[in-house]
Design a protein that fits this description.
Elements lengths: L1 H5 L4 E5 L3 H14 L3 H4 L2 E5 L9 H4 L7 E2 L2 H15 L4 H5 L11 H9 L11 H11 L23 H12 L6 E2 L8 H5 L1 H8 L4 E2 L1 H7 L12 E4 L2 E4 L5 E3 L4 E3 L2
Helix pairs in contact: 2-5
């Protein structure tokens, strides 16, 4: 990539507002700040919508402002990337009180990622809770609760495969919150098997009594099921679970 950039006179970075794109941006700028000659060629075009949802002929007609990448951009990105990679979410949380406006969508990304930590009352993140809400409304099949363009689930943090794993985790565990999934796990092998994929797509999802209690904030998923996953550089486990208090926008240590 550096070799390619060195052959260019100027480089425009077009970036989506979604969290994964913003994480890619801060990683890239953190890397390029150690390559001053290359970084000096950069400009940033920050879209307010997902670029890939629009046809190329439309995108080339956009007249979006391009901001020259300055040292402030590189320092802000570097601090954010190091915070995300840290072994606890504390430094990432502190970014909420920092001026991040030089990277216009970064503050919202910080908040949305914190919301995916296990919640104080339920032990589930915001995307998982939204899936439970949609299932509770009735007539829900798996892809009805996946996030996406023109979908009822507007959460943007996780991609397609990650969301499938989240739904698996709610259904295939010692104390399930969701019932009715007729196939799994959510893997490429399942997708490649037409019969298995069809059974998955047609599954009729329902909340278990435990899932209903979680949705009512009277039960905690993490107290009945093992937790082991990564949030940035933080390893979340059942005995070391950082939590997010959404009402007070505060971080709760294990």
């Amino acid at each position: 990539m550096i070799d390619l950039y060195e052959r260019c006179e100027t480089i425009e970075l077009w970036v989506d507002p979604e969290p994964n794109a913003q994480l890619t941006l801060i990683w890239l700028l953190d890397y390029l700040r150690h390559h001053g000659k290359t970084a000096s060629k950069l400009t940033l075009v920050q879209a307010s919508v997902r670029i890939g949802n629009h046809p190329p002929k439309e995108v080339v007609g956009w007249r979006l402002p391009a901001a020259k990448i300055l040292n402030d951009h590189l320092e802000t990105a570097g601090a954010a990337w190091q915070a995300y990679r840290a072994p606890t979410p504390q430094h990432w949380f502190k970014l909420l009180s920092r001026d991040l406006s030089i990277l216009p969508h970064l503050w919202q990304t910080v908040l949305e990622l914190l919301e995916e930590l296990p919640m104080r009352a339920t032990g589930l993140g915001a995307t998982e809770m939204r899936m439970l809400e949609l299932i509770s409304a009735g007539n829900a099949r798996p892809f009805d609760v996946f996030p996406g363009d023109r979908k009822r689930n507007k959460r943007r943090v996780f991609g397609y495969w990650e969301v499938g794993c989240l739904l698996d985790g709610l259904a295939h565990c010692p104390a399930p919150a969701v019932s009715g999934i007729d196939e799994g796990p959510f893997t490429l092998q399942m997708h490649d098997d037409r019969n298995r994929h069809t059974r998955y797509v047609r599954s009729e999802l329902k909340l278990t009594p435990f899932g209903e209690a979680i949705l009512a904030r009277t039960e905690d998923f993490s107290r009945h099921n093992p937790i082991h996953r990564w949030w940035g550089g933080t390893e979340l486990t059942s005995d070391r679970l950082w939590r997010w208090d959404a009402a007070n926008r505060s971080l709760i240590a294990p």
